[in-house]
Each structure stands twice: as structure tokens, then as C-alpha cells.
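U., I forgot to send this yesterday:
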Amino acid sequence: MTEQSKGIGLVDDLDSPEALGFTAWARVWTELGVRCASQETHEKLIRHYDEPHRAYHNRQHLAECLRVRRLLNAACQAPAEIDLALWFHDAIYDPLRSDNELRSAQWLDEVASDSGLGDETRRRLYDLVMVTRHDSAPQSLDEAVLVDTDLAILGASFERFEEYDQQIRREYLHVPMSIYRRKRRQILEGFLARGRIYTTAPYFDAFEQQARVNLTRAIDRLD
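Result:
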């Protein structure tokens, strides 16, 4: 297990107000050339991540993603675009629906348009959010970095992975246990069957080995 994976979700700065505060939000927009970030949108976004039905897809996950992206600082073309897409990638989350990524991408596109970002930037941001459906391979380096960031939880410390596994179950308490175990096993086995869980070298080096240990243990419990 690497030092990076030991730290995911187990560091004090994830709970600090600054991690997801307006200053952090505004910094990303400034890096994209937008001088006046919307405080109203920031507050609305945080309210979404604080919705009571979210056990995993909440502000903890968002803070972890933003932190690990900056911690590893993997080579990419537009880090600010990745960070903004991370802010929005679970903006809309309803376990009973299958279009969460689409609705999140559409919301980001509306905000980006209102903020004056150009068509090409908006297209990339839209695609970055949509790739978190994890149903197709990333088509760009930035998409690969974003996907690897979203999946970093799989290579987290044993304690954090266990917490994550329990959090996912709480989000799907409406699903009978027999069905949940079968579906969850299919998803975890799908990740484990990949030749590489993480596309980019920094994430592979930091998380691949621990992710495979975590996934194997979790699958064994679902037998």
C-alpha cells in the first residue's frame, strides 16, 4: 500500500471548511479565466452533496477527489477543467435513476455557458462528467485522469474502503439484499477483471495493488 492510498479519506484537511469552500471553488473558475465565480451556484452545489440520501456520493467523496487530483498531479492538458468537472460529477445523484451523470453534465454546461466559457471548453467539460458513467474507455488524457480520480476510492486504505463499501449499501437500502449482493458482485468483478483498473501511471502506481486487494476481499464477502 502506498503513502497516497493510506491518506485517502483519513486526513484532517478533508473536513476543513476550506476544502470545499468558496475560495477553492473560485480558484478553479479563475484558472479557467472566469473572474466572478457564482457563489449562489457554489452554495446550491454543496446543498446537493449534503442531501440526506447520500451516504457515499457526498461532500466527503468530492473532497477526496479534489485532494487526490492535486496530490498526484498527474500529467494532463487542462487541470482546471478536470477540477471543475469533479465539482459537478455527482452534482445530481439519485440511486433510483440512471441519468445522474447526464443531468450533472447538463447542469455544468448551463453554468459554464452563463459564465462565458467557450463552446470547446464546454464540450470537454460535458464529456468529462459523462465519462464517470464508467461504461466506456476514456477518450483523452484528461478523461483518464478524471476517471482514475473517481476510482481512487477502490485503492484507499482498508479502513476507508470498508467505510465506502458500507456507504454504498446504505444508498441502496431499497434494494433487497439478495439482489444487491448479486449486482454489487458484478460491478466489483468488472473492475477486478480489467487489465488495469487505473489508466494513468501515477494512479496505477499509487492505487492498483491495494485496489485489487480491496476488491478481492469485498467480492469474497458477497459469496
